[in-house]
Amino acid sequence: MRSYNNTIKKQGPLSEGKQVLGILLNGDQILNCSSSPTSHDQGNCGRPVGRWAVTQEGFQVNVIGYKGAKPKKQLTSDPNVSISYLPTVPEFNKYLPRLLAYFFKVLWQSLTLLWALTLKRRSDFVFVQTPPAIPVFAVVWFYSALVRAKFVIDWHNYAYSIMALTLGKTSVLVKMSYWFECYFGRKAHGNICVTKAMSLDLMTRWAIVSKVLYDRAPEEFHRTTIDERHLLFTRLSQRYPILGGALHATAFTKIEEGRPVLRSDRPGLVVSSTSWTEDEDFNILLSALVNYDKCDREDLPKLICIITGRGPLKEYYIGIIQATKWRKVSIITPWLEEDDYPLLLGSADLGVSLHTSSSGLDLPMKVVDMFGCGLAVLAHDFNCVNELVRNGQNGLIFKDAPQLSGQLIDWFANFPDGPRRYDFSKAIAAFGGLRWHQNWVQRCMPIFKPNQDFKN
């Protein structure tokens, strides 16, 4: 979920004061939006919210969520956005068996979310991003029926498939989530999803008609200038010395005649973002980097690999990284300020995506961000990845660590100034020509027109 700054002229139906409530969900988050409207989001309010395009079209947004990272200034300074917080869910699992704890967690979330919704002014639309699904679908459906609002679901993945990663496909909770998503998904007035593969699956699996909306990067994701790179790495090197250099220099830049320039002896910079969960096999990247480190070719540069993200397996893999004896590869795992993340992507030489999707039907947002920064990507193969990364056209696909290490070696051969085997710049630039706000207005704003037929 993101926030956007673009200004687009209001279209007729949207400037008439129709009220909209959107609940945007991602992970443990819920968010809401509205028009003379009102909107709500349940989840960590610090996470950027991606449907703020509606605020540019005359809508007000009320965010309801759990406290987390500090909200973006774009949200807190926007007069059309208000933020309120849900009470933290008690740790029922500390005192109760798993099933009973889950029951009380769902009950708590249901009551607090319903209460938060009813405190807001009535809205004409309720917009839900999933996962999660339980209990949000039921609460929003009930609220929508109560106030005669339209219930719209934005499918990013299946909640049951994520639960199955840890509980197993035969788990009672997984089966219950499957039924829950099917039952309430059919009750939605409209559905949008992130891939053609998911749209087809929704139809064949649950007879749900949906509209495909591919993600696009917002404007803040762009290729950085040398000045921006120098300032970024100068700042980051204070916490991560490997990014630094001699006086007035970094590992990648130096000052010549009063201006920053790229160093000819700079290392290659690889970036990846991971959730550090079973959904993304970090062993593949780690093994590929070990293979690169062992390669004796003289035309290969040193590499710095920056891996962002937080998750349960992070400390485990950091231990492995620190125990490995590296010659040519350095790995750091920083937690970046939000404004630094697009600058890092725009400064990198290559991106790596380990995303495989629990359902095999969603696409990695991190690749969209990388393309927005003009960055080529090596992406893990899975069911519908070719809807975003087309092998040999705008990136490369790998299936395992040996293939990934071979791609890294091919990519960085003769770096930085020698002949390149691949050039995806034109295809990536074409992809980045369409940004999130424009894409959202073109594809989704018609949903908010009066008397919209959602099933078509």
Automatic annotation (TrEMBL):
Q: Which UniProt keywords apply?
A: Endoplasmic reticulum, Glycosyltransferase, Membrane, Transferase, Transmembrane, Transmembrane helix
- Where mainly found? endoplasmic reticulum
* A Pfam family annotated for this UniProt entry: Glycos_transf_1
Q: Which GO terms describe its molecular function?
A: chitobiosyldiphosphodolichol beta-mannosyltransferase activity
The Glycosyl transferase family domain sits at 269-412
Listed GO CC annotations: endoplasmic reticulum membrane
Give the reactions, separated by semicolons, that this protein catalyses: an N,N'-diacetylchitobiosyl-diphospho-di-trans,poly-cis-dolichol + GDP-alpha-D-mannose = a beta-D-Man-(1->4)-beta-D-GlcNAc-(1->4)-alpha-D-GlcNAc-diphospho-di-trans,poly-cis-dolichol + GDP + H(+)
Question: Its topology with respect to the membrane?
Answer: Single-pass membrane protein
Query: Where found, per UniProt?
Result: Endoplasmic reticulum membrane
Q: Which InterPro entries match?
A: ALG1-like, Glyco_trans_1
This protein's pathway reads: Protein modification; protein glycosylation
Q: Give the protein name, as stated in the record.
A: Beta-1,4-mannosyltransferase
